[in-house]
Amino acid sequence: MTHAATLTAAGFTSAELTGGTLTVRSPIDGAEVAHITETRVEEMGEIIALSQAAFRQWREVPAPRRGELVRLLGEELRAAKAELGALVTLEVGKITSEGLGEVQEMIDICDFAVGLSRQIYGLTIASERPGHRMMETWHPMGPCGIISAFNFPVAVWSWNAALALVCGDPVIWKPSEKTPLTAMASMKIMERALARFGDAPEGLVQLVIGGPAIGEALVASKDVPIISATGSTRMGAIVGPKVAARWGRSILELGGNNAMIVAPSADLDMAVRAIVFSAVGTAGQRCTSLRRLIVHKSIHNELVARLTKAYASLPIGDPRVGTTLIGPLVDHASRDRMLAALAAAKAEGGTVHGGQTVSSGVPQGGAYIAPALVEMPAQTATVKTETFAPILYVLSYDDFAEAIALQNDVPQGLSSCIFTLNLREAEAFLTAAGSDCGIANVNIGPSGAEIGGAFGGEKETGGGRESGSDAWRGYMRRQTNTINYSAHLPLAQGVKFDF
Ligand code: UN1
């Protein structure tokens, strides 16, 4: 399909795509596909006020009824899956299957949130005082600002929006400047769900398009109590303290530098498949992409040989073509950063396989590059830095404790995994003294998490949790209640205060 046909299928009119100041390019061929109108900073006050007004109504709508809106969103997403998936491919350069997979992830979180809307449970707690009962109640917090990254332009929004909405919080979404189109298309889908829902307050879900100043307005506002931000550690280091300084709550999902330990007993066929998908899938542009391989010395050469062979067979090219496995990087700056990291790794003693620019058999104008495998003598500064591109550094180890130490010796703490058939190693990897990451897997790669688990990580990854499990608690305020149904007023801790 041509870009124009993909945009029309996603419901865009030419007026929406022209006349604005934000230029959108497709990573497929670098073509300018739209000039979008940006939100002006001066409008942000009104947008936030509208969100607050929506909050005052939405918080009183029963949670299962709020869930109905998300159920309708899930239905609309199912109906629009092909068109939105194709738009993700156009705007981010993901291969077709991954574009569709991203929309499936949105549908999955909607289903999860619908169930959650009837399961916002609090505890009942034993009181030490006679005739008293204690409990916890969960209340909506207020507007939730969602700052999302280009690489999962719509799924990460839906993780936050689906939960926030059932939790009673309006949302204001600031997508990456690189991906306004998928955001606008998602809003169109959301608007269809809102229309069917009928009586949602105006401004319950808002989209703001623009650069850092727009994001800063959200981050600075006391009227936006929750900021959920996904992106670089550099961005998080700015957002986190600013939100904290005004007593807001932030949910941060920042950099990853995800490793796999490959132990001597590993099923190497499975490991090779897991490595290739997680290191080169999405052209290495997932937060969860595999970036470091920590391989036992006894199998290092065999594994590297198998991987270099597998890498050489990977089809690189137009992500719209069904056989392609590696599409373009998001832009040329990204490819320049990858090349700079490879040069730095080489200077630190690395041996680079692959990593060359690809210009034949691919659409002209895109940043196509062969994935790189880099054998490193040690975990150098470059290995410890996240480069958002398909670079896999290979390190080797002698004993298991050394492997765990290498795995943990980076500033980031998102995802991790081990390939082993040794039960002791597998279990040790998951203990308090094992992986220090928010996600730790056994015999599967570090990427491609399901929505049912809490998603996020430690250290410079920011500590936030989104998506499944009890991540919903991050979108609500907890109230502890003590109810006295007796005719006396005993004090806790046996304190006497008679007068
Ligand atoms: C991200 O890259 O920010 O686990 C999200 C995964 C996907 C989500 C990645 N489900 O790889």
UniProtKB/TrEMBL annotation:
SUPFAM superfamilies: ALDH-like (SSF53720). It comes from the Bacteria. Keywords: NAD, Oxidoreductase. It holds the Pfam family Aldedh. Its EC number is 1.2.1.3. Residues 20-480 form the Aldehyde dehydrogenase domain. Gene3D superfamilies: Aldehyde Dehydrogenase, Chain A, domain 1, Aldehyde Dehydrogenase, Chain A, domain 2. GO terms for molecular function: aldehyde dehydrogenase (NAD+) activity. The active site is at E253. Homotetramer. Belongs to the aldehyde dehydrogenase family. This is aldehyde dehydrogenase (NAD(+)).
